[in-house]
Amino acid sequence: MKKVFLFLLFAGLLSAVYAKNNNQTASGTEERELWVNTLIKIADPVLSNLADGTLKAKMPLEGLNNKRLWSAHLEAVGRTFCGIAPWLELGVDDSQEGQLRKKYIKLALKGLANAVDPSSPDYLDFGTPSQPLVDAAFLAQGLLRAPKQVWGQLDEKTQRRMITELKRSRDIKPFQNNWLLFASMVEAALLEFTGECDIERLTQGVFAFRDEWYKGDAIYGDGPQYHADYYNSFVIHPMLTDVVLIMDKHQLEVSDFLPVQEKRFTRYAEQLERIISPEGAYPVVGRSIVYRVGAFHALSQAALLHKLPSTVKPAQVRCALSAVIERQFAAPRTFDDKGWLRIGFAGSQINMSEGYINTGSSYLCLSGFVALGLPANDEFWSNSFTPWTGLKAWNGEDVKADHALK
């Protein structure tokens, strides 16, 4: 009964702030509070149970294909860490939010130790083909996003075990599409944390997207073919950018491509900002649409890295994403009665998913929250309400023309 009451209270908070934002009176402080509360609401069951060694025992499993449920626990863990890591990296302070981070950093450290401990009931499978390669990569991306607060605070034994498990994913051959970047992402983390990597796996994905699969105006094919979906945001731009940054840091031969990719990344973020409607909606198009606000992973990451275009103010991205978050997670039946995410786009809508989607997959929605890695005094949060492009255009305000990237 208490959990039902807390869920109703949470839904009421979302609805209240959503109405407030529509009235254009919500401050950056209030919106940050909403982002943090929503992040914790989503991530807590995964992190708390992993730390307690009860993730496999307590996480519900739903999906259209029962044969794909076996990988759900690593999916939940990898995707949760990918999204929450930038916020954790801000560290501990005396504020209420800083004390929340203290709690979840401790849970993260304890949980990751369990995930790679063969004697733990929550020991995760990193090596069975094929899905673990995907979520080893999301976990690796999360570790790269929290080098001080998570990776740097893991004990030596857990670090060694984590490296062993990441290397285990090398036995999985990636498909000729965005999966190449999963192999690249794992190797980028190994390069950063050990100084060594499989150079072919590191570079194969980067060179395929650089040399073969670019379609124009910041859009990559998911392999040789173009797909009308959000995989440029779920995976391609965020991972390609992070991998190339690591390669450049370690003085590998991508210095000529890094500025090209950053321009494409910035242009794609500009496109994403423009598709958010005045009501906080966006087109329901393509595969994996049940990853919810994860469709804006690249936009949130562009804000985090201060790579937004000059045409887009950081605060307008905050306001636009707040409208999406408020609307999407206030939808009825988004969570079950114990707080776990249900599969859906705006509520529980399992038939919108594919056969490879399960409960754990849904946690990729947290990738849309990576801008929480910006401190509260960053202009993303500190500036007042700023209307986003869709809101301005539909209100009849003068908006500059949109131009393709040359």
* Strand line-up of the largest beta sheet: 1-2
The structural class is: mainly alpha
Name the helix and strand elements from N-terminus to C-terminus, one letter apiece: HHHHHHHHHEEHHHHHH
Tell me the strand percentage band.
under 5%
Task: Specify the helix fraction band.
Answer: 40-55%
The dominant shape is globular
* Number of extended strands: 2
Radius of gyration: 20 Å
Oligomeric nature of the chains: single chain
Quote the average pLDDT.
Answer: 95
User: Largest beta sheet, briefly?
Assistant: 2 strands, antiparallel
Task: Give a verbal description of the structure.
It contains 15 helices and two strands. The chain is an all-alpha fold and 406 residues long. Strands 1-2 form a two-stranded antiparallel ribbon. Mean pLDDT is 95; it is low at 1-9 and 14-21.
Question: What's this, in brief?
Answer:
The chain is mainly α.
List the helices and strands and how they pair.
Blueprint: H1 2-22, H2 28-52, H3 55-58, H4 72-88, H5 96-115, H6 132-145, H7 156-168, H8 179-194, H9 199-211, E1 214-216, E2 219-220, H10 231-249, H11 258-274, H12 297-304, H13 314-329, H14 379-382, H15 389-394
Antiparallel strand pairs: 1-2
Helix pairs in contact: 1-2, 1-13, 2-4, 2-5, 2-13, 4-5, 4-6, 6-8, 8-9, 8-10, 10-11, 10-12, 11-12
